[in-house]
Design a protein that fits this description.
Layout lengths: L2 H23 L11 H12 L2 E2 L7 H9 L3 E5 L2 E4 L6 H11 L4 E3 H8 L9 E5 L9 E5 L7 E4 L2 E4 L1 H7 L1 H4 L2 H8 L5 H10 L6 H9 L8 H12 L6 E8 L2 E9 L4 E6 L1 H4 L2 H16 L3 E6 H6 L1 H13 L1
Parallel strand pairs: 5-6, 11-12
Antiparallel strand pairs: 1-3, 2-3, 4-5, 7-8, 9-10, 10-11
């Protein structure tokens, strides 16, 4: 037998044993000295949250094998994550950034990542001047975001809280602005600056109206409506989110008339429904009353359904 033929037979034998080990154990680690390609895929996904085929073309066979096994799923074309992680916001955001590194995450996803952690996000929207093809759960939209309105954190680019709150106006009204104000991540000046940097956007009329309506910095939609009642009724001398210190306690009153020691609390269901909040509110009210404050409490239903009665009650409290 010739030397060349013996070498060929040796290579065939080695490849046969390699394939047998892979089929039997699910990877190539059974062969001494041969690194498991499947293990490499797992290493990449574990460290980066996903794997991009074009960056790891040498692992394409292993990627396809894991897809066939149902262990990897496509988040975007050519970008894969563990099946149980593919739907996660962080995974979808990372995938969008892989496809479009200069893009900017906007809307609900940007809000959840910055100031509204409890917000449910159905779709990740990535803005970019060019065209990109998305997939269910991830959308690319053609839009230029001014540099001063972009934040970058660990290779993730999102809109600033001010622009994010404005972007949400069309879907949630002023709730995005109220939530950002309550989280103290924006100011009214930030909102006006963001509007000035995006002057020609469709929908800016609504955004400007809601920013103007936010001039007294409401922290919730019921507070926003209550502020309108006070302004419409011509009442003056009131302050919002008014800080009061009583002994070693610090309170922020929804609305206060400091000169008259009248406090108004707006009880929205979302922020006052838990047992802990119920107990805390009672202790808070007792301490305010003992310190000489008169406290009025109005619910969402009162503010929206009986604004005239609400205004009359405030006027009566101010008369003493």
């Amino acid at each position: 037998m010739s030397k060349a033929r013996r070498e060929r037979r040796g290579l065939v034998s080695l490849w046969s044993r390699f394939r047998f080990c892979c089929n039997k154990r699910g990877d190539s680690s059974a062969l001494p000295g041969v690194k498991s390609f499947l293990a490499e895929v797992h290493d990449v996904v574990a460290s980066e949250g996903l794997i991009v085929r074009r960056r790891h073309s040498d692992l394409s066979h292993s990627i396809d094998r894991l897809i066939k096994q149902g262990r990897l799923v496509a988040v975007l074309p050519g970008i894969y994550a563990y099946a149980e992680h593919g739907h996660l916001l962080q995974t979808r955001v990372r995938a969008a950034m892989q496809v479009c590194p200069t893009g900017v995450i906007t809307g609900q996803a940007a809000a959840k990542l910055s100031f509204w952690p409890e917000l449910a996000v159905s779709e990740v929207v990535c803005a970019h001047p060019g065209r990109r093809v998305g997939q269910p759960g991830i959308t690319f939209t053609r839009r230029r975001i001014p540099g001063p309105l972009v934040l970058e954190r660990r290779a993730i680019r999102i809109t600033t809280p001010a622009l994010t709150a404005l972007d949400l106006c069309e879907s949630v009204g002023g709730d995005g602005i109220d939530t950002a104000l309550r989280a103290r991540v924006i100011s009214l000046a930030d909102l006006h600056a963001a509007l000035a940097l995006t002057p020609d956007r469709p929908g800016n009329q609504l955004r400007r109206e809601l920013v103007a309506d936010s001039r007294d910095e409401p922290w919730s939609h019921p507070e926003r409506l209550f502020h309108r009642i006070l302004r419409t009724g011509g009442l003056v001398g009131w302050a919002t989110n008014h800080l009061v210190r009583i002994e070693n306690h610090t309170f922020y009153l929804d609305v206060a008339f400091p000169e008259h020691l009248v406090a108004v609390e707006i009880d929205g269901r979302a922020h006052h429904s838990s047992a802990a909040a119920f107990e805390r509110d009672r202790w808070r009210q007792n301490q305010l009353i003992l310190a000489g404050w008169r406290v009025l409490r109005f619910t969402w239903q009162m503010v929206t359904g009986e604004p005239e009665a609400v205004l009359a009650a405030v006027r009566q409290a101010l008369r003493g």
